[in-house]
Amino acid sequence: MATITKFLKGAMTRPVKHIGAHLMQAENVLDFGADGNDVLASDVVQAIILPEQAVVTKVTLEVTTAEGSAVTCDVGDTDDVDGWEPAFDLNAASVLTKSTGSYDVNGKRYNSADRTIDLVPSADLDTCKVWVAAEYYVRELF
Questions:
Q1: What 8-state DSSP symbol labels residue 125?
Q2: What CATH number labels 3-138?
Q3: What gap in Å lies between CA 78 and CA 100, rounded to an integer?
Q4: Which of 34, 68, 70, 108 is the most buried (most CB within 10 A)?
Q5: Rounded distance, CA 75 to CA 83, Å?
Q6: Where are the domains of the chain?
């Protein structure tokens, strides 16, 4: 199992968008079909990096290109691999709009250096394309 960080760098990471006065959204497109972007089963794909003290209220995924074979992914972080969503289907054009993992009820605060939203596939990925977004606010500690 490897940790894949290459999706956090370069042109694939999109800028933060402000929603209203305080809610923000970070998003990224993970193109596993691009040359050199193959991912093996159980690799940890870091999809989004969050600012320190971010409180994530929602994670959304949209599969724009299906994998072509049976595969799911857990969506979470280093504390809980499926804290946002267990077994999201990557072999169908689908959208995750409401998380069912343990973080969904109250969201999650990211205090430490480990501040990434991660995907862990159940099988190798070499075709699918996934849009990932996290809505969050930053609470300053006094």
A1: B
A2: 2.60.120
A3: 18
A4: 108
A5: 7
A6: 3-138
